[in-house]
């Protein structure tokens, strides 16, 4: 009863949906971010209005964090399960799963920093306060697109070990069915 037949496909579908939503929100934020034409400058002080990219970026961050947490909980469940511990070798070298998880977390941190910084620049930058040191900053072109690519890398490397787990389990079940039918 420990391994349910449909648990991994359901969670993989959910994580995939979160990834697609996050990527879509990043791409939409690229088109809705503050433009140079929105900047109001009176010679010394600047003002930028709030951009819709702020809300879109917040949504992208929420979906990314949810997908990463759920995916890694499933990976940890797999790694620390009794079946895996009984079948694992005493060899403690880094595994492919470990390397993939490292890449996933590295791209996750980079995406969080990039999206977080971009959305903080998308808030209202009041006259005289700006974003940093009283100066107004505009998100560069392509930043949200790069964020979308990082989201894709993050969640695809999170899904990789889960998909390999399903394939491996299917292969074992197929072999077992073949041997039981030929006996």
Could you explain how this protein is built, in words?
The protein has 183 residues and is an all-alpha fold. It contains five helices and two strands; from the N terminus they run H-E-E-H-H-H-H. The protein has helices spanning 7-32, 53-79, 82-87, 96-121, 143-182, and strands at 40-41, 46-47. A two-stranded antiparallel sheet has the order 1-2. Helix 1 (7-32) runs antiparallel to helix 5 (143-182), helix 2 packs antiparallel against helix 4 and helix 4 (96-121) packs antiparallel against helix 5. It is elongated and about 80 Å long.
Topology:
Layout (H helix, E strand, L loop, with lengths): L6 H26 L7 E2 L4 E2 L5 H27 L2 H6 L8 H26 L21 H40 L1
Features:
183 residues; mainly alpha; 5 helices; 2% strand
Describe what is shown at a glance:
By secondary structure, this protein is mainly α.
Beta-strand percent range: under 5%
Distance between the termini: 26 Å
Model regions low in confidence, pLDDT < 50 over at least 5 residues: none
Name the assembly state: single chain
Sheet with the most strands, sense and barrel status = 2 strands, antiparallel
User: What is the helix fraction of residues, given as a range?
Assistant: 55-70%
Structural class: mainly alpha
Strand runs, count:
2
Give the averaged pLDDT, no decimals.
Answer: 82
The order of strands across the largest sheet is 1-2
Specify the overall morphology: elongated
User: What is the N-to-C order of secondary-structure elements (H for helix, E for strand)?
Assistant: HEEHHHH
Separate helix tally: 5
């Amino acid at each position: 009863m420990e391994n349910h037949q449909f648990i991994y496909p359901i969670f993989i579908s959910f994580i995939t949906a979160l990834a697609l939503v996050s990527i879509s929100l990043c791409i939409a934020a690229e088109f809705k971010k503050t433009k140079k034409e929105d900047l109001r400058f009176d010679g010394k002080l600047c003002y930028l209005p709030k951009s819709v990219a702020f809300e879109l970026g917040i949504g992208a961050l929420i979906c990314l964090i949810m997908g990463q947490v759920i995916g890694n909980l499933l990976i940890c469940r797999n790694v620390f399960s009794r079946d895996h511990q009984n079948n694992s070798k005493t060899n403690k070298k880094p595994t492919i799963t470990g390397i993939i998880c490292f890449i996933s977390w590295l791209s996750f941190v980079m995406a969080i920093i990039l999206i977080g910084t971009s959305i903080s620049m998308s808030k209202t930058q009041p006259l005289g306060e700006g974003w940093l040191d009283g100066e107004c900053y505009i998100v560069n072109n392509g930043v949200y697109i790069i964020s979308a690519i990082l989201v894709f890398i993050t969640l695809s490397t999170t899904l990789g070990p889960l998909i390999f787990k399903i394939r491996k389990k299917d292969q074992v079940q197929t072999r077992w069915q073949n041997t039981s039918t030929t006996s």
